[in-house]
Amino acid sequence: MDITHKILGEVSKVVIGKEDIKETLLIALLSEGHVLIEGLTGTAKTLLARTFAQVIGGEFKRIQFTPDMLPADVTGFYLYAPLSGRSQFVSGPVFANIVLTDELNRTTPRTQAALLEAMQERQVTIEGKTHPLPRPFMVIASQLPYGFEGTYPLTEVQADRFMFRAWSGYPNKEEENQVIEKIDYIEEPGIRVVATLKEVLGLQQAVKKVYISDKVREYIVTLVDRARQDPDVLIGPSPRASISLYKGSRALAFLQERDYVIPDDVKRLALPALEHRIRVKPEAEMEDITPRVIIERMLKEAPVPKIE
């Protein structure tokens, strides 16, 4: 069993169900991306992120966002020491391998923006000094559905930094029965570290060697362009959407033990890569047109290249 299967297997010992989210997290990790998980409270978002960090031997930190948080609570700050006359940098919780930003949309856009540089450039700049973040580095953000009391909508700029968006819903009856049955183990799990950070970095480099043909690359660009040109779309996906599909499809092919990407890899990731990057026109929303509807229509209409 290779490392990726070991990671998924060990996580599944603690987190029941949610197979799509587990795979999405692993794809994002291998692609050096970040994941936004939307869902109701109590649906194992924190447990999933913490377990995921533990099995790869990484440092895990959780940031519980509240309306009164400041950017320095995330990135860190300089503390002046009167005796020495010098300022010492106190790192914030963003300095970890896996960072769970819990209920990201409960804090203000100003504090949300503190993550932008970290997520894009893997560094933070404070008082003109740049501090690199550890590698690998991945943000797993959770948010409550927009409209819940005390929530602030993520800006397009913030949402665009996430490679994928996933939905964490309630378990079905069988899964919830398993959770209750294994609750003592889940609350005090004996998690095994099945990979090292060095091995994860090696996997990230191996994924970059997966081949994508010109036809598949053009297919990715065509899908994103169709989303932008759709008459029901107010704001379309940015070039980061194309990059997310490109990098993510390589990782998915790698997980399926292929050294080349096929169109089905792109189709599988279209929804998590594009849904949070599309804003629908108000008049279309009144007709129950959602980003999901637009993506499904786009996948149906776009010609699929034949790979020989």
Overview of the structural elements:
- The chain has helices spanning 3-12, 19-30, 45-55, 72-75, 109-112, 116-121, 156-160, 173-181, 183-187, 197-207, 214-229, 239-255, 263-274, 282-285, 291-301; strands at 35-39, 60-64, 76-81, 86-91, 98-102, 123-126, 129-132, 138-143, 164-168, 233-235, 279-280.
- It contains 15 helices and eleven strands.
- It is globular, with a radius of gyration of 20 Å.
- The strands form four sheets. It has a five-stranded parallel β-sheet. A two-stranded antiparallel sheet has the order 3-4. A two-stranded antiparallel sheet has the order 6-7.
- By secondary structure, the chain is an alpha/beta fold.
- A hairpin with a 4-residue loop joins strand 3 (76-81) and strand 4.
- The chain has two domains: 3-199, 3-Layer(aba) Sandwich (Rossmann fold), CATH 3.40.50; 210-301, Helicase, Ruva Protein, domain 3, CATH 1.10.8.80.
SS content category = alpha/beta
State the end-to-end distance: 30 Å
Q: What global shape is seen?
A: globular
Per DSSP, the total helix count is 15
Whole-number radius of gyration? 20 Å
Overall number of strands: 11
Largest sheet: 5 strands, parallel
Number of structural units classed as domains: 2
Overall pLDDT: 89
- Pattern of helices and strands: HHEHEHEEEHHEEEHEHHHHEHHEHH
CATH architectural group of the largest domain: 3-Layer(aba) Sandwich
CATH class category of the largest domain: Alpha Beta
CATH superfamily of the largest domain: P-loop containing nucleotide triphosphate hydrolases
Under CATH, the topology of the largest domain is which? Answer: Rossmann fold
Instruction: Please give the share of residues in helix.
Output: 40-55%
Strand content range: 15-25%
Q: State the oligomer.
A: single chain
Going across the major beta sheet, what is the strand order?
2-5-8-1-9
